[in-house]
Backbone:
C-alpha cells in the first residue's frame, strides 16, 4: 500500500523528531524513519528516539551566551525538544542538563502519540523521492552516505565526537570531592575533584602515556575544537588542561579554603543523582587505561564506571556548497537537510535546524515560500554560517556571538555587548515568529 505521508523524515534524533513534530503541528502527515534497532550505531545504546549519546547537558541557559539566547528563541518558537528537556531538568548550575533516560522516553512517547506521524523502523539506503528531510545525523549509515555523495558529488569531512564517562554517585569519595558551581552560580550542582600541582602533573603524564584506540585507516581525523580528546589537549602543553576542562577558576576547596591547582568536575546525569559524568573528558584511551588513569583522580579512587568515554566518527556535509538558506538543497529543492549532518554542533543547534526544516517543508506543502530566519538571531546566525557559499575550511560550529552581524551602535565588549545582541535578536525574532507560527497562535 502506498504511503499517504506528505513528507518523509530520515532520522529519529533531535533534529528529525523536531522536524516531524513541527510538520504534524501544521497538519502535515509524516513518515519518520529510524533505523534502530534493526541497525545499530557505534554510539547509541537504545532504540529510543532522541537518545542523547554524548553529554546530558544542553549547556548554558543565560542570555549572555549565544546558546542561552537560542534556548529562549526555541522556547518562543515552540520547540518540542526544549519543552521536554525542561520537564526532565536536573541540577546543573546555570546550565540546562537533563535526565537522559527520562528525556528520551518522553520524546519517544510524544512522537509515537502524534497521530500524523508514522514511525518506520528500517534503514533508508537511498534518498527517497518527493518532499523529504534528511536528518540522519553524524552516524549516517554507509548506504545512505553513498546516496548523498552520489547526489552532491562532494566528499565528506570527518571529525570525532565525544561520549563522556559516567560513574556512580556512591563510588565518589565525597570527603574529597566537594559540591560547588563556579562563582556560586546555580547552587552546589557540581561535584569537584581537586588536584594540587603534583597530582595534576602526574595525571597529565598518565594521560599522555596511556594506550590509545588506534584510528582506523578510513577515518580522517579532523578534531572539532569543542570536542578535543583530553590527550590531544595534554599534548599541547602541560598546563593546557588546567586552562581547559580542569580549570579551577571560581572554585575553592573547603578543606583548604584555597583554589586548587586543577579541578575535575562531575555533573549530575540522571534525575535521582545516582550517576555523574566527567565534564569534558572525551578520550581515545582504551577502556582498561581509562579505568586506571581516571582512578588516580582524587575522589575517584574507587570509581565505578557505568559507561566509559569514547570518540566516534562524526560525519557532516560541506553545507555552504550544498544548501540554500531555507535548508533546501541546491541539487533538489524538494530535499531539505538538518541537524549535525549540515555542520552545526550541539543538541539545541541541531534541534533548531530540524525546527526550520520542518517549518519550511510544511510551507512547501501549503504552497507558501520557505522562510529564512533573521541573521541577527541565534538560529539565523547558524543558518547563515552553514549556508554562506565560498566559505573556506568549513568546520562544525556551536552557537556563538562571533557569528552575529555587528551591532548598529558601538557597545563595549563583554556582557553588555552580549545583552545588546540578545535584545536585538529577540526583537527581530518577533515578526519572524509571527510568520512561522502565526500571530496569537500557540507555539506549542
Residues:
Amino acid at each position: 500500500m502506498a504511503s499517504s505521508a506528505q513528507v518523509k523524515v530520515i532520522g529519529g534524533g533531535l533534529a528529525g523528531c523536531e522536524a516531524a513534530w513541527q510538520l504534524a503541528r501544521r497538519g502535515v502527515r509524516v513518515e519518520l524513519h529510524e533505523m534502530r534497532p534493526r541497525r545499530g550505531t557505534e554510539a547509541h545504546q537504545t532504540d529510543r528516539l532522541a537518545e542523547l549519546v554524548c553529554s546530558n547537558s544542553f549547556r548554558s541557559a543565560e542570555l549572555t551566551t549565544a546558546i542561552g539566547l537560542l534556548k529562549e528563541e526555541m522556547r518562543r518558537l515552540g520547540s518540542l525538544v526544549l519543552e521536554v528537556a525542561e520537564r526532565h531538568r536536573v541540577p546543573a548550575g546555570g546550565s540546562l542538563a537533563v535526565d537522559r533516560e527520562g528525556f528520551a522516553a518522553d520524546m519517544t512517547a510524544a512522537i509515537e502519540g502524534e497521530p500524523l506521524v508514522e514511525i518506520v523502523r528500517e534503514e533508508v539506503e537511498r534518498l527517497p523521492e518527493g518532499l523529504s528531510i534528511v536528518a540522519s545525523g553524524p552516524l549516517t549509515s554507509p548506504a545512505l552516505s553513498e546516496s548523498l555523495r552520489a547526489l552532491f558529488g562532494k566528499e565528506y569531512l570527518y571529525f570525532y565526537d565525544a561520549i563522556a564517562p559516567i560513574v556512580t554517585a556512591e563510588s565518589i569519595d565525597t570527603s574529597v570531592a566537594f559540591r560547588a558551581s563556579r562563582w556560586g552560580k546555580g547552587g552546589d550542582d557540581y561535584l569537584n575533584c581537586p588536584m594540587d600541582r603534583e597530582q595534576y602533573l602526574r595525571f597529565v603524564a598518565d594521560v599522555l602515556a596511556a594506550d590509545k584506540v588506534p584510528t582506523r585507516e578510513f577515518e580522517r581525523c579532523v578534531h572539532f575544537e569543542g570536542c578535543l580528546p583530553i590527550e590531544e589537549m595534554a599534548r599541547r602543553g602541560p598546563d593546557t588542561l588546567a586552562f581547559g576542562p580542569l580549570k579551577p577558576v571560581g572554585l575553592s576547596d573547603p578543606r583548604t579554603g584555597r583554589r586548587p591547582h586543577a579541578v575535575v568536575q562531575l555533573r549530575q546525569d540522571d534525575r535521582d543523582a545516582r550517576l555523574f559524568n566527567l565534564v569534558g573528558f572525551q578520550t581515545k584511551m582504551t577502556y582498561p587505561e581509562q579505568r586506571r588513569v581516571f582512578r588516580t583522580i582524587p575522589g575517584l579512587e574507587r570509581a565505578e564506571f557505568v559507561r566509559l568515554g569514547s570518540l566516534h566518527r562524526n560525519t557532516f556535509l560541506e553545507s555552504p556548497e550544498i544548501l540554500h538558506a531555507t535548508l533546501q538543497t541546491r541539487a533538489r529543492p524538494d530535499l531539505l537537510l538538518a541537524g549535525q549532518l549540515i555542520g552545526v554542533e550541539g543538541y539545541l543547534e541541531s534541534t533548531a535546524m530540524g525546527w526550520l526544516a520542518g517549518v519550511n517543508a510544511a510551507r512547501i506543502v501549503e504552497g507558501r515560500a520557505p522562510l529564512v530566519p533573521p541573521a541577527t538571531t541565534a538560529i539565523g546566525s547558524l543558518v547563515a554560517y552553514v549556508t554562506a557559499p565560498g566559505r573556506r575550511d568549513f568546520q562544525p560550529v556551536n552557537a556563538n556571538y562571533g557569528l552575529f552581524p555587528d551591532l548598529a551602535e558601538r557597545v563595549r565588549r563583554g556582557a553588555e555587548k552580549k545583552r545588546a545582541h540578545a535584545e536585538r535578536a529577540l526583537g527581530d525574532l518577533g515578526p519572524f515568529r509571527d510568520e512561522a507560527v502565526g500571530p496569537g497562535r500557540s507555539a506549542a
Q: What stands out?
A: DSSP finds eleven helices and 16 strands in the chain. Residues 163-311 form a domain with the Elongation Factor Tu (Ef-tu); domain 3 fold (CATH 2.40.30.260).
